[in-house]
Amino acid sequence: MLNAHDMRPDWHLQTDCLVVGGGAAGLAAAVTAARSGCQVILMERYGFCGGGAVAGLSGTICGLYAACEDDSRPPEQLVHGFVDEFIALMEARGGLTGPVRYGKTFTRVHDPLVWREVADHLLASEPNIQVIYHSVVTDVLLDGEERVAGVQAYTKQGRLKVEAKVTIDASGDADLAAMAGLPTTQGDNGRVQNPTMVFRLQGVDIPRFLEEYGPDSILGPDMSAQINEENSAGRYALPRSKVFLFPTPRPGELMCNATRLIGRDGRELNPLRADDLTEAEMLGRAQVREYAGFFRKFLRGCEESFVNDTGVQVGIRQSRQILGLTQLTNEAVRKGAKTATAVARSPWPIEMHSGNKPQLHWLFEDTYEIPYECFVPIRGEGLLAAGRCLSAEHEAMASARVTAQCFSYGHAIGHAAAITALENIAPRDIDGRAVRELLNRDGARLG
Predict the structure, then answer these.
(1) Of the candidates 2, 4, 3, 40, which has an alpha carbon nearest to the alpha carbon of residue 22?
(2) Are 387 and 177 in contact (CB under 8 A)?
(3) What angle do CA 267, 360, 227 make, to 5 degrees?
(4) Which terminus of the chain has fewer Cβ atoms in its 10 Å neighbourhood, N or C?
């Protein structure tokens, strides 16, 4: 008989607030909770913060600016709060572009190395935060049947047990909710948006590139037609014809969102399945070489370009989410719905990445709002969600998952976690309007 063993000594910590995941949401939640007086532990599986923006190399802070049909209108920032502080720190280090046009709105492109450094700076500046990099949660601790009381994790030091008054699931995949047996959802009846492998090209003559293709990072129909022609002729394997290419803060570099990762059997790959995630990583790297070769041959300014880097992992657009007290609906996003308990807002379009061309559904000169209750599990205690773990319908999630909003979610849930830990109020009993008031004191401008 084979028996599992780990003879290393266990270690044990206690804290007010435990944050699992160091993406935009987890970082904002940890810093906010610490500034509110909590002792905080942040656990992250990589050796750096950034989540999909850094490990997945998604590269942009999307969701800040109004969408407008008039292309002559300058950028109008509608999302504020913790993200403003993060942007200021990135700008001070030269790690962020100005607004870059993306269709009918704008985004900002970052340097992933500077992102890591800014996150380290923010965390190190708060004495109430203990950071544990290279830690992978393996189990949740349950007090009774459904009260989450912390986690158990793998670390190089040995098995770690962390007990917490409140735990924030900022894993990106609602891992803690699933481990605890709480209700979760996966996309459209289990079908999720396919992942992508983002990459960066160096050696690009950016002035020549912009002179030829203009300031919009979404390349036009002529380029899509060229991609389709080369793909159909079998000269390159290019399953996606609409590509997004962004100049970055680094000289001579383009950030490329171009790949479409579907299984060899034609299925949309599910990143919650080990085989699918492995296939996505391998297919992604192969597609990067195909698109890089095409760009080098056909794009002006890219003749001497080369692949500088790919994501540490494929970019995950959608996986698993909590089922919350409230669910952000497709209709609410399309209609720009507002609510008194909202703790975040978004002007970002619904981005449906299926077929050979992404579909964008715009909300012009308006925002929708995301209620606090979308981050509180419908069952269970002691747990809050942040980031793309929020409770949302399939199309709504295709808008609500982006970076600026994840900063907003973390900012809000950090405040809610502090209320739970310090005032002994269960997350489901917190009034979202009280969280909104705290956010506005921090400059969120939610009204």
Answers:
(1) 40
(2) no
(3) 65
(4) N
Contact assessment for residue 246 and residue 60, using Cβ atoms and an 8 Å cutoff: yes
Structure tokens at 357: 């061309």
> H-helix or E-strand containing 332?
helix 330-335
Contact 370, 346 (CB under 8 A): yes
Residue 328's contacts (CB-CB under 8 Å, 6 or more residues apart) are 370, 371, 374, 390, 391, 392, 393, 396, 397, 400
Claim to verify: residue 34 and residue 157 sit in the same structural domain: yes
Q: pLDDT grade, residue 315 (50/70/90)?
A: very high
In the chain, the amino acid numbered 425 is I
Query: Is residue 6 domain-resident?
Result: no
Is the dihedral angle over the CA atoms 269, 275, 280, 283 positive or is it negative? Answer: negative
Residue 49 domain boundaries: 11-70+111-190+318-441
Query: 388 with 324: CB under 8 angstroms?
Result: no
pLDDT at res. 264 = 87
Q: How far is the C-alpha of 81 from the C-alpha of 414, rounded, in Å? A: 13
Tokens of residue 276, six digits: 């699918």
Q: pLDDT tens digits for 95-135? A: 999 999 999 999 999 999 999 999 999 999 999 999 999 99
Residue 335 has pLDDT above 90, yes or no: yes
> What is the H or E stretch that residue 286 is in?
helix 274-298
Q: Which of 410, 321, 419, 425 is nearest to 22 (CA)?
A: 410
Which tens digit of pLDDT belongs to each residue from 219-246? 999 999 999 999 999 999 999 999 999 9
- Residues of the chain above pLDDT 70, percent: 99
Q: What is the pLDDT of residues 158-177, one digit of tens each?
A: 999 999 999 999 999 999 99
pLDDT number for residue 265: 87
Contact call for residues 15 and 112 (beta carbons, < 8 A): no
CATH number for the domain harbouring residue 35: 3.50.50.60
pTM for the complete prediction?
0.96
Task: Output phi, psi for 441, to 5 deg.
Answer: -60, -30
Q: Is residue 263 part of a domain?
A: yes
